[in-house]
């Protein structure tokens, strides 16, 4: 399910990120001394990382070695790797930060204000960790999230949730499809793909404290506003707008075979949709309840400096 299309690295942003990472890992000025920078990345990112890293290193006396690894094991291997084969930098996901910062595998970064301005605040926040004081542990280079896909032969991009509901059910009746809005759930549920509904009804995972950082004591799962609106989920299932039994493959097939007017998914299924020939449009998820923003989870990948970077003597 992981496609190379998920990687959306802007060269200028990636160079900025890499320069910030290496500068922070050494804290020294430029030198002509030949040094080596070892980067671990998964197969989908190796070509882009190699191109960007070599372009950045040219003329800096830095030799770059990009080592291909499976994405998941990077997270585990970084804590046990031998020093002589350890990476200076890894490419990983933002949700690794809590574990890797706690066990000391990655180091906090302190890029300049000018560098930080080149990144969206929400991307930097995704790589930040701490409740009283947040520290930045990664430089983001790729972002992804689910969005609303519209089959433009069956419906129009909705102007409101009521409009989506009306068009989706009309298309369901016309196509005799299983649902009007294809969103994967299945027997175990799928909180990630259903989060636009959850947040749009007034729910959230963690609130924030006075410092503006995530507050683990403020959990937004059973708050009154969410419970007041939660009955809408039963309504949607009853009328066939969505259906909890729809799994990931059936949700995709319903949309790509023209049986559902709308589909919630991310860039990992974009190639499947394009191959199907379905004419589509991509938009944000409409507001369900007035005054409440419906937002998806954000996925971010980026560069992280490891505890092994200092012995290699990499300088920027």
Overall body shape: globular
- The class by helix and strand makeup works out as alpha/beta
Q: How would a textbook summarize the main sheet?
A: 5 strands, mixed
Q: Element order, helices and strands?
A: HEHEHEHHHEEEEHEHEEHHHEHEEH
Q: Strands of the largest sheet, in order across it?
A: 2-1-3-13-6
For the record, give the distance between the C-alpha atoms at the N and C termini, rounded to a whole number: 37 Å
Radius of gyration: 22 Å
DSSP summary, beta strand count:
13
Low-confidence stretches: 1-13, 25-34, 311-316
Averaged pLDDT, please?
Answer: 87
Number of helices: 13
The share of residues in extended strands comes to 15-25%
Helix content: 25-40%
List the SSEs and their pairings.
Layout: H1 11-26, E1 35-41, H2 46-57, E2 62-68, H3 71-77, E3 89-93, H4 97-102, H5 113-116, H6 121-126, E4 128-129, E5 135-136, E6 139-144, E7 147-151, H7 161-175, E8 181-183, H8 191-200, E9 206-208, E10 214-219, H9 224-229, H10 231-239, H11 248-256, E11 262-265, H12 270-276, E12 280-283, E13 299-305, H13 309-312
Parallel strand pairs: 1-2, 1-3, 8-11
Antiparallel strand pairs: 3-13, 4-5, 6-13, 7-11, 7-12, 9-10
Helix pairs in contact: 1-2
Written description of the protein model:
The protein is globular, with a radius of gyration of 22 Å. It has 13 helices and 13 strands. β1 (35-41), α2 and β2 form a beta-alpha-beta unit. It has helices at residues 11-26, 46-57, 71-77, 97-102, 113-116, 121-126, 161-175, 191-200, 224-229, 231-239, 248-256, 270-276, 309-312, and strands at residues 35-41, 62-68, 89-93, 128-129, 135-136, 139-144, 147-151, 181-183, 206-208, 214-219, 262-265, 280-283, 299-305. The longest helix has 16 residues, at 11-26.
């Amino acid at each position: 399910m992981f496609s190379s299309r998920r990687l959306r690295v802007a060269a200028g942003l990636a160079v900025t990120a890499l320069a910030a990472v290496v500068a922070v890992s050494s804290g020294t000025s430029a030198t002509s001394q030949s040094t080596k920078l070892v980067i671990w990345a998964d197969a989908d990112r190796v070509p882009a990382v190699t191109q960007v890293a070599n372009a950045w290193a040219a003329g800096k006396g830095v030799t770059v070695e990009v080592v291909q690894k499976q994405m998941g094991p990077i997270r585990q291997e970084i804590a046990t790797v031998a020093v002589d084969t350890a990476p200076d930098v890894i490419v990983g996901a933002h949700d690794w930060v809590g574990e890797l910062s706690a066990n000391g595998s990655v180091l906090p970064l302190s890029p300049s204000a000018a560098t930080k301005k080149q990144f969206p605040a929400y991307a930097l926040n995704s790589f930040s960790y701490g409740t009283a004081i947040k520290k930045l542990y990664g430089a983001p280079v790729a972002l992804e999230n689910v969005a609303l896909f519209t089959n433009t032969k069956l419906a129009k991009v909705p102007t409101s949730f009521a409009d989506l509901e009306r068009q989706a059910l009309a298309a369901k009746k016309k196509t005799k499809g299983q649902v009007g809005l294809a969103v994967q759930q299945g027997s175990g549920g799928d909180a990630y793909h259903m989060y636009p509904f959850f947040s749009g009804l007034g729910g959230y995972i963690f609130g924030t404290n006075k410092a503006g950082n995530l507050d683990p004591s403020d959990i937004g799962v059973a708050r009154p506003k969410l419970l007041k609106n939660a009955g809408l989920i039963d309504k949607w299932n009853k009328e066939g707008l969505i259906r909890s039994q729809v799994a990931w493959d059936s949700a995709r097939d319903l949309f790509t075979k023209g049986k559902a007017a709308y589909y919630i998914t991310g860039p990992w299924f974009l190639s499947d949709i394009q191959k199907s020939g379905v004419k589509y449009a991509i938009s944000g998820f409409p507001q369900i309840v007035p005054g409440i923003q419906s937002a998806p989870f954000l996925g971010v990948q980026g560069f992280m400096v490891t505890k092994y970077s200092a012995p290699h003597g990499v300088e920027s």
